[in-house]
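Why run this: before we spend reagent on co-expression, it is cheaper to look at a predicted model of the complex and decide which construct boundaries make sense. The entries below are exactly what would go into the expression plan.
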Amino acid sequence: MAKRLLIVDDSRVSRMIIKSKVASLGVDWELQEAVSGDAALEQVQHWRPDFVTMDVNMPGLNGFDAAQRLRALLPRVCVVLLTANVQESSRERAGLLGMHFVPKPVTEAAIEQVVRHFQAAA
Amino acid sequence: MKLGELEHDALVEVFNLGVGQAASALSQLAGEPVLLTVPKVELLSKQAVLDQFGGAIEQRVSAVRQSFEGALCTEALLIFPAAQSLRLVQIMVGENLPLEDLGEMEQEALAEIGNILLNSVLATVSNQLELALEGSLPEVELGAVSEVLLAEHDIGQPLLSLQVRFEIASKRIEGYLVFVLDVCSAAMLKSKLAALIERLQNEA
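The model came back. Tokens follow.
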């Protein structure tokens, strides 16, 4: 069965670029998008992802809290924080939560790093 | 807010590092070097900041605004001529989408570019000064330089202004990163700068 990737980002442009760069790497994963942390939590009730890219600064629930709640619901899900919030305090928080951290911008190199992390975790 | 010479130099250096990070992010997107000026740090009124833009003050610009709060309160702006905004968007989404198809997502793309660049600068400032900042969500504005810069502030209020001009030569894009530090954060800023200077002196 194909792996499933959920892209959580309030920026439509970021979601579009992430999708396009993941597709260009030739992985055959099913992709879905969520526009916020709250929407992601709702969505995983009926579509269970294996992997999640999570923005941090979003309206409503922030990415850290959303990721923690997602993991409580789906303990085996692998989450990568993909964010412009590159403060040391954010990296440290990601580390404490045991989540991989990849800084934006969403370049090919950044998405390769994300995909490799997911493949290693699978 | 009055900064000593060392504090001033340290603040310029911290923002210089931050702007370097932002330039690196922009350069990754553009695929070419981004030219920058050294940040100019001055204690000015908004009127004086406006005066620095001279004849360009009524030029129509696109701006992305984000507020950062914590040990520092700062309003951060990415400003560039409105006519260039689609070119900036194309840098982000790539050359595959024609300019005419970008209009629909122009605002969102600008917000994300602003988000990346302004966070790059402030994250470096935050890391160097060892303080945590909470950023608001980015907002896109369109208007004259004067309207964008004057929003929500008294024109006579003294502010610590940092301005950097950037240019991506082959894409014919130029703009400004402007950081307006509220004087409410003066005491904390001075103490964080003093700690940084002490660390640097101990390392020397």
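Residues 108-121 of chain A form the longest helix (14 residues). The beta strands of chain A are 4-8, 30-34, 51-54, 78-83, 100-103. Bring this page to Monday's planning discussion.
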